[in-house]
Amino acid sequence: MANGAATAAGAGAPAAKRQTVKAKQRGGIPLFRWLTQNIVWELFILACIIANAIILGYDAHYGESNPYSAQIEQWNTYFLYIFTVELIIEFLAQGPRRYFSRGWNWFDVFVVGISYLSFSSLSALRTLRVVRIFRLISAVPQMRRVVEALFSALPGILAAFAILTVVFYIAAVMGTTLFHSDPGFSDLGASALSLFALSQFDGWGDTVTRLQAQNEYAWVFVLGFTIVAAFAVLNLFIGVIVEAVQAAPQEEIKEELEELEGDVEDIAVAQEDAAVVQQRILDEVRALRAEIAALRSNSATPPSPAG
To answer: Which pTM value belongs to this model?
Structure first.
C-alpha cells in the first residue's frame, strides 16, 4: 500500500507542477482576482466614479463659497484613496506582467497619478482632479469598446482625412483662381475657410448668390464641391468608424474564447493526470492482489514429511 501511495504521489507531481506553471503564467493572487471580477466590486467602483463626478460638478458650479466646500474636499480625498487602493488590488489580482501589458491599466495609473497634483494650491493644477471622471470610460465595457474601436479605426480615419485634405486643397486653388476678387476667396487661407463653411452648409445660399454675381456658373463649382466634400468624403469617416465599432465585439469574443480555451486546456490536463493516477493505482492493486494470491497458495500447501 505504501508503494501505491508513493506511485500516486509521484503521478500527481507532474499535475501539481503544471498547475504551478499555469498559475505563474496567469499571475496575480486568486483572492484578489476573484474580488476584481465580482460584480459587487465593479458596481462599487462605478458608483464611486459617478459620485465623484457629481461632487466635482457641484463644487465647480457653486465654487469655494458653498457651505459644503470642506466636506467636498474631504470626499475628493477619500475617492482618490479608493481609486488608489483599487489600482493596488488590480495589480495584485493580475500580476506585474499581465497588469502592465494592458493599455487601460496604464490609463488608470496615469489618471489617478495626475489627480494627486490637484492637492497643489495652484488653481490650474487643482482643475486636474476632474480628469478622474475619465476613469468612467475604463470602468464601463461599452464605453471602453467604443474608444478601442476609434483607436483601431485611426489608420482609416487618417486616410480619409488625407483624401479630404486633397479635395479641399484642389477646391481652394480653383476657388482662389476663379473668384479672386471675392473677399471669401482672396487667397488660399480665405478660400479654405469659406470651403469649410460650405461643407458645413454655413451660409451656403448666401455664398452661392454672392459668387453668382461674378460668374453665372459658380453654382457648378459650389455644388460639385459640396457633393464631393460633404456627402462623399465626410461620410468615409462615419463608414470607417462604424466598421471599427462593429468589429470591436468580435475582438472581445476572441479574447473570451482564448480565456475559455485556457480553462478547457486546464481541465484536459487535470483529466489526463487523473487518468494516469487512476491507471497506476489499478496496476498497484492488481499487483497486490497477485502477491496476496501467491501468499495464500503458499500457506495452503502442506509441508512435506521429514524423511
So the answer is: 0.57
